[in-house]
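RECORD TYPE: protein structure
NAME: Acyl-coenzyme A thioesterase THEM4
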Amino acid sequence: MSGYIQEDIDPEELAHRTELASAIAGSVRDLIDATVRTEVGETDIAEARRLIAAATEILRKDQLPGPFGIRFNADGTKRSWGNAVLGRRNPIAPPVDIRHETEHSWLEVDLGPQYEGPAGLVHGGVLALVFDQLLGSTAEFQGVPGMTGTLTVRYRRGTPLGPIRGEARVDRVEGVKTFVTGTISVDGEVTAESEGIFILPRWARGEVPEAMRKSVGEG
Ligand SMILES: CCCCCCCC(=O)SCCNC(=O)CCNC(=O)[C@H](O)C(C)(C)COP(=O)(O)OP(=O)(O)OC[C@H]1O[C@@H](n2cnc3c(N)ncnc32)[C@H](O)[C@@H]1OP(=O)(O)O
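PREDICTED:
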């Protein structure tokens, strides 16, 4: 399976690169928020575009030929910096930090104006995106990973932009299928609930490296 890359980087260097990745993505996230909410006129827009083009040119000086993929150290520590939900170096990602407990997993994240759907509310597709990652990561953490086969979301009420909390747990495992359920809530009130069926694909059922098998849903 392409896109899974073993790339050993010593811990100190990795910590440094992680800091850089978070810093540049954070700056661009700020730019996205500023762009969505700006009220400046033509002259300021032209000047901002010139500066953004200059920054883009600097970043283009040294680029990967394609997506970031999933990168591992030999000890199994993993980097998915391009991931649309978790990606440290992806300004599209909020980014979400998922915490795993014995029985369940959870996240808390602030979804700003760039995730708007209905006025003042989070876009339904963005909530599905968050559920997909949260439920998939929960399956992975519990040792029963898979790719999303089916994801069902029930939107019970609008989810206001701002801080949300997600929770998920494995409901059951049937052969290669893991059924995971979860909720998103705001101020303790559930606004959406979801069930995902995560399936260990055929290619991962045989002899594949453990680190790769564990992350099948991510590539
Ligand atoms: C760390 C992880 C975090 C992950 C978060 C993000 C995850 C993602 O976004 S993954 C990307 C989106 N998903 C995809 O791209 C998946 C695309 N689909 C596929 O690759 C395949 O269709 C896949 C893997 C789902 C199933 O294919 P395959 O391995 O051939 O399954 P197959 O052997 O035919 O069927 C196995 C079982 O699953 C069932 N099944 C197959 N497809 C589906 C489906 N889409 N939904 C529900 N059940 C299904 C079959 O009926 C069968 O059931 P049973 O064992 O009871 O007979």
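COMMENT: The longest helix spans residues 11-37.
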